[in-house]
Amino acid sequence: EKKRKAAKEEEEKKVEDPKKRKADEKVEDAPVPKKEAKKEPGRVQKEDAADAEKERDAPAEKRAALKAPVTFLTTDTTLNVVPAAGGKLLMAMTEGGMQYLLAGARASVGVQAGRYAYEVKIVEALNPTESSGQHRGR
């Protein structure tokens, strides 16, 4: 019986589907039809919703602009802040263990509500783990 089943399986393998091709056969250079993307009606609605979610400009400011320039109050700074360049530049002391302290200053104008923008330029970035006495003889 086992031999008969094996013989039947071999015959079935010989009879192949004509649509299938073997790996050894060459493929004809027939042009492959391109698939078109399906257009869904819901897709258009999603794109419109995405456009509506984009950030809009803030309304024009109706309050009066500041007349006095914004400055740092040197009396309201921490002990390790050193004002320079006429108060426009603030430096933090880095000697004698002062590099481990946070430096802070207060401006002459406060914020109540709304959007405000200010510009900060970092002139020097120090690593507090490095100390000036690190290169001494060991």
Automatic annotation (TrEMBL):
Residues 1-63 are annotated as: Disordered. Residues 7-63 have a biased composition (Basic and acidic residues). It comes from the Eukaryota. This is Uncharacterized protein.
